[in-house]
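Following up on my earlier thread - several people asked me to post the actual chain instead of describing it. Fair enough. Here it is, all 413 residues.
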Amino acid sequence: MNKKINVTIVLDGSEISSKIEQEFFNDIQSYQEEDIRMWNQKKYINFVGFILKENHILISFPKHFYQENLENEFSKEDFQLLLATIIKAAQNGLKDLSNSQNNFPLSAFATVYNYYKQFGLYYEEKKQLKDGYYGKINWRKTIQSVTPLEYQGQWMYMPLKIEKQNPYDTFITRCMAYVINDVSQKLNFLFSIEPIEYAFNPQEFSNKGYVLNCLYDLRQTMFKDIHLQLIDALINYFKTEGNTSGDILLKIHHFDKIWEKLVHHQLKSFDQIIDDQLRFDGKHRLFEEQKTFYPDCRHPKTSDSKNHRLEIDHYFEDENRGIRYIFDSKYYKNKVGIDYKQISYYFLLKNYFEKLGNESKTQIALILPSEKEVGYTEIEFELDGNYNNQDKGLKLYHYYLPIKEAMRSYIGK
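Reply from S.P.:
Thanks for posting it. Predicted structure:
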């Protein structure tokens, strides 16, 4: 029977209460300095993920995931949406899961569980021959081992050798069952994963070194990619100590990198800006990721210096409309003042485009997360013509993208 778990919900960037600090940040084993951000002598959550300590779990969702009343809004589906997003980002190159303190191998478990849902437990098959008349006939064995009989002028082989495939379990089968049941026992209250009815001895997995050595040896005998991926996932699971009996930790300290991936995926449906509103009803826009420019003549394109180049998060040239889009993902919003980075991009690149003979109009925008169900656009800055008559009308747009919608679209739901 699953034990009762007390769930505490917070948002990345929210202030840490004394109760939360006492329950989850009172020993060095369950947190690290990067988990907490200090501002005006107050402490704030600085990660997305969870900390499970005995029968208490702290789940930190991304900024703007909920509006208010966090405890009332939380659901298992929200938690699973968050984990599915992290898994997809990890598969697309996110390296934050390699945080040395994280001991819940999320991507490895997802690979094992997805294999199980698609194919069931891993079994190997042995071919067996039996005498009979129905099934797949092995003619070579039949001819070699059976003396033919003449009947009405024809030679007949009786009985036939029938080939049958008999599945049998292996160490890989038991590893899969252990991993799925391990997660089911510890996190079933969030995953809703039913344990597998499969008999195995848990003591077989008490020695992690032994388990890993067996898996490494078995990997040498595999050839199919799907089986290699399964074994690699099992290896990663046990290497990351998925069978730990202490605190279970999964923390992403740079969710802005995942937000960038969510935005880039959403921009595939971007169409254009009409009446100061960003429209997302187009199809297959091929925005470039990390478009780089080198405006400092002392550090040309061949330089590896990161301090003298411009990196645009999302860049697209609409040749039909003659518009160039310079968009940036923005997970954090400045509380005061204007973010001038996009405006500086406009002026630094404007003449560069003109020298290339391009008369395209340039539009700039920041894409930020929103807790609302529908996206909306605001004008953050509009240039006064008294300061620059040539570029009057320049506008910096803020588009607020519903974060849950972006996450569902990203994982294909």
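The radius of gyration is 29 Å. That should answer part of your original question.
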